[in-house]
Amino acid sequence: MNDREALEYIKGYFDELFVKKNVDALDHYLDKDYFDYDIGDPSVDHIQNSKQYLLRRFEREPTIGVNVVRAMIHEEVIAAFLEWFVVEGGERRVTMKGVASFLLRGEKILKRHTFIYWRAE
To answer: Cβ contacts of residue 24 below 8 Å, gap of 6+?
Structure first.
């Protein structure tokens, strides 16, 4: 995979989740041993936990979206610069910016961690 392919992969991932609201896409994108460092607790099912979290988030913020600004790959790690936004009155308002690291195992995401470096006040 090269940087362009990594960008398309991550864009496809976020499109399934935040445009189509298809949380079952996690079954396709995430490795069976998926670990989310933002969840952290090794005793929970990280795929099911992620699905539940996203469904609750979509209920609270139905217009939430993620823009993949840039992505690059080095070995099996994709680093993606992301912007979370909501649409209010037809206007898109950025609420957070961050960088997410995705460790791949083959074509699936094995581990993820996100660092938020900016939040709207």
So the answer is: 51
